[in-house]
Specification:
Layout (H helix, E strand, L loop, with lengths): L2 E4 L2 E2 L7 E3 H9 L4 E8 L2 E8 L3 E2 L7 E2 L1 H4 L1 E2 L16 E9 L5 H19 L21 E6 L1 H6 L30 E7 L2 H15 L3 E10 L32 H5 L18 E10 L1 H5 L3 H8 L36 H5 L10 E2 L2 E7 L5 E11 L6 H11 L6 E11 L11 H4 L2
Parallel strand pairs: 1-3
Antiparallel strand pairs: 1-2, 4-5, 5-8, 6-7, 9-11, 9-12, 10-11, 13-16, 13-17, 14-16, 15-16
Helix pairs in contact: 3-5
This protein binds the ligand C=CC1=C(C)c2cc3[nH]c(cc4nc(cc5[nH]c(cc1n2)c(C)c5CCC(=O)O)C(CCC(=O)O)=C4C)c(C)c3C=C and fe (ii) ion.
The site of fe (ii) ion has 2 residues, from helix 9.
Cofactor: heme b
Protein name: Deferrochelatase
InterPro entries: Dimeric_a/b-barrel (IPR011008), Dyp_perox_C (IPR048328), Dyp_perox_N (IPR048327), Dyp_peroxidase (IPR006314), EfeB/EfeN (IPR006313), TAT_signal (IPR006311)
């Protein structure tokens, strides 16, 4: 079943799958081959319609769209979009603090405005008020907008008793060099899209929507590989040149949902039920000391990670997806994957099963005062409980990770990301109106 939408008009046959009437007509009307790719990646459904001649821009522009431009991710669903979807080429993360005097009522109105805007932009439509035109001609381009609440949000809105304990501040780590101005925040928004203008359009629209209710606390920009740049889809590389993401939990694994999402129903106090199907995001700006890293030989770099640079295969052999053999020793009597290798120390079997879904963006903010690139990883990871995901792993990495010599954690945030909205609902409604 396909839901047809044109501007605001919709039928309710299937709230998860959306295709604009113009796209549908364009697709059906094409004489040649028609590709209609429907794929579910975890909670958020992805839909793309392409024809020989492409499809017209749902946003109102005249041009034809490639599949990259036409791909649309549903805003409504069990989980918010932007958690299990493939990495997009462009990302923005932005944190806001509620303005002095703003409380629960203003926060609810803001989340309502933001959700309305995000729902429309993710469908490839114009912003509800005073659209800037930045994304005219473009399709939704896999845009996702994801909203979260920081620890301080609950005090500001008088909802302290509804704050889950999982949102307790992260512990200090010895290697942290955190900038408080670029950490935390009442509200957090993650934007991803496969087109830079579409991503910026969303950022600008949401910033304008904030109006007098909230002020920007910090904002960061990131990027990943553009889909289609490689011969076949592959795990992304980071700015150190490593294949990064191999060990991520996979949606097909039976315990995936349990690891990444808060259970839909209990256990836990009823006051925290609003987080059912939600997730917790840990966000760290991690600077890479690239001049130091680039001085290392490839062999030395591979010892730091425990995997080969070219293919991402473990040093114990095989291909990228071959499990690491952590018990293998070389002729020199040393473990083949060194005891301080990053992939060994962070592996779930070394951390009582602790796992997280890493979904980062690279960043490059020019050249720092010391003449080295101000570049690295906007590390974003998702888990049902940070105390069974990020925290134990980072504790261990903090004590003996060979990668520590080449990175610096510069900012940090932890956010409760509520479940996806139902049709007509706004994100966080079950907290703010429950
Ligand atoms: C606390 C969590 C982690 C931080 C912080 C972190 C930073 C970080 N990692 C890389 C590069 C790689 N990480 C890899 C694996 C990996 N890393 C973590 C956790 C953190 N990384 C986990 C849980 C894993 C998976 C371990 C496993 O399941 O085997 C890898 C290897 C490839 C892969 O599995 O993704 C690389 C490469 C950088 C550059 C970085 C900070 C800048
Ligand atoms: Fe890592």
């Amino acid at each position: 079943m396909t839901r047809v939408t044109e501007n605001n008009e919709s039928n309710e046959s299937n709230p998860d799958i959306e295709i604009s009437r113009r796209q549908l007509l364009g697709t059906v009307g094409a004489a040649g081959a028609v590709g209609l790719a429907l794929g579910a990646t975890g909670g958020a459904l992805v839909q793309s319609a392409v024809s020989d001649s492409g499809t017209a821009g749902a946003h109102g522009g005249a041009g034809a769209l490639s599949s990259l431009g036409a791909t649309r991710i549903a805003f409504d669903g069990d989980h918010q979009a932007g958690i299990t979807n493939p990495l997009q080429a462009k990302g923005h993360v932005i944190a806001f603090d509620l303005a002095p005097g703003a409380g629960r009522k203003e926060a609810a109105a803001l989340l309502r405005r933001w959700s309305q805007t995000a729902r429309r932009l993710m469908a490839g439509e114009a912003a509800p008020t005073a659209d800037t035109g930045i994304a005219l001609d473009a399709g939704p381009s896999s845009l996702t907008v994801t909203f979260g609440f920081g620890h301080s949000f609950f005090d500001r809105t008088g909802l302290t008793d509804r704050r889950p304990t999982a949102l307790d501040p992260l512990p200090d780590f010895s290697g942290d060099r955190l900038d408080a101005q670029r950490s935390n925040g009442d509200l957090w928004v993650q934007i991803g899209a496969d087109d830079g203008l579409v991503a910026f359009h969303a950022l600008r629209s949401l910033q304008k929507d904030a109006g007098e209710a909230a002020r920007v606390r910090w904002q960061m920009n990131g990027f990943n590989r553009t889909p289609g740049a490689t011969g076949a889809p592959m795990t992304a590389r980071n700015l150190m040149g490593q294949i990064d993401g191999t060990g991520n939990p996979k949606p097909a694994q039976p315990d995936f949902d349990k690891r990444i999402f808060v259970p839909a129903v209990g256990p836990g106090p009823a006051e925290h039920a609003w987080m059912g199907n939600g997730s917790y995001a840990v966000v760290r700006r991690i600077r890479m000391l690239l001049d130091d890293w680039d001085k290392q030989s490839t062999a030395a770099q591979e010892q730091v990670i425990g995997r080969t640079k070219a293919t991402g295969a473990p040093l114990t052999g095989g291909s990228e997806t071959t499990p690491m053999d952590l018990a293998a020793f070389g002729a020199d009597g040393k473990p083949v994957i060194p005891s301080n290798a990053h992939a060994r120390i962070s592996a779930p079997e070394q951390n009582g099963g602790a796992a997280m879904l890493r979904r980062p963006f690279s960043f490059h903010d020019g050249i720092g005062a010391d003449g080295t690139p101000d570049a690295g990883l906007l590390f974003i990871c998702w888990q049902a409980d940070p105390l069974r995901g990020f925290v134990p792993v980072q504790r261990k990495l903090d004590r003996g990770d060979a990668l520590s010599a080449f990175i610096r954690h510069e900012s940090s945030g932890l956010y409760a990301v509520p479940p996806g909205p139902r049709a007509g609902e706004y994100v966080g409604q079950r907290l703010l109106e429950g």
